[in-house]
Amino acid sequence: MASTEPSRAESSGSILRVRDLVKNYPIMRGVVFKKQVGTVSAVDGVSFDLAPGQTLALVGESGCGKSTVGRLLVGLERPTSGSVVVDGVDLATLSPKQLLEKRRDIQIILQDPYTSLDPRMTVSSIIGEPFEIHPKSLPQGRTKRQAVAELMDRVGLNPEFLSRYPHQFSGGQRQRIGIARALALRPKIIVADEPVSALDVSIQAQVMNLLMDLRDDFGLSYVFISHDVSVVRQIADEIAVMYLGRVAELGSADQLIARPNHPYTQALLSAVPLPDPIVQRTRERITLGGDLPSPADPPAGCRFHTRCFKAQAICAAEQPVLRPVDGAHVAACHFPEPMYDLAGGGSAR
Ligand code: ADP
């Protein structure tokens, strides 16, 4: 199990501290007599820190465990082992009632506004529901209706539409409804799980701008989950690249994009489309061989070795731990080596 100390934020200054997080799911067979026949290793030893007001992005291809980490962070699922410490409080030490209370501090926005909003509820009841669960969190002197109208206004929705239903809104507007609901309890941290992946590119930019404005206005910290490096680089202060349940590389967004050291990060970045068509046609592309192995039967040693262009015997035998590379960031690789300018001109921020 890989473990690492934080790359930047000191533990004491972190709003969120994650250590050696592991989540295994049992694979069950049988209809009447269910029997466990295996284990899916969805998350295997993930550690990171998030400083107040910062955005840490979890990036990696589908199935690498990003959403599972997101669900563990907000207490929707319990980890197999490891700890999630939100503003100094370890979630594992809380009773269900205390956990419900603590979840005010850390809210989640989900990818698909079509399925995450109840179609039978009005926008007013969707956004106002957190106030039903936590009545004391209604802003002073406001009725629920007033508080909902203010939230709608803040996320760019017309408050006159509070009696409408989700299907009467566009995809981008529905995502704004999800954002308003997540903001209702004035959280300190928002986990945004692929918040713009289901939206058209033009709408994506608007929602990204809204998220960045809200971060600055409310002093929010984000864990931003996405498979798309082009989206992540717009918002991230730090990036954790995940592969098959583990962190492959972690560091400041600028450094990691300008000088990736892990072969998997290098492959991810070399696939990012570049705006200049000539550069796009002529730049080096790193194509990975093989398919993503199953997390039910992950490769021994470095989980990436079966697809790695640098793999040697040690990679199949020994799991590399995260260690400092090239200055300030960390990579879990036996043969780290920087590559430059794979994604065009360092970070776009
Ligand atoms: P990502 O968000 O990066 O696409 P996920 O966290 O959704 O990845 O999934 C990681 C792995 O865990 C996948 O192989 C997925 O099939 C598996 N997984 C996720 N949730 C469950 C579950 N509830 N039961 C069994 N396997 C799961």
UniProtKB/TrEMBL annotation:
Stretches assigned to the ABC transporter domain: 16-269
Coiled-coil residue windows: none
Keyword DNA-binding set for record: no
InterPro entries registered for this protein in UniProt: AAA+_ATPase, ABC_transp_ATP-bind, ABC_transporter-like_ATP-bd, ABC_transporter-like_CS, Oligopep_ABC_C, P-loop_NTPase
Keywords: ATP-binding, Nucleotide-binding, Transport
Signal sequence extent: none
One Pfam family named in its UniProt record: ABC_tran
Record GO terms (molecular function): ATP binding; ATP hydrolysis activity
Annotated GO biological process: peptide transport; transmembrane transport
Similarity comment: Belongs to the ABC transporter superfamily.
Name of the featured protein: Unannotated protein
Native source organism of the sequence: freshwater metagenome
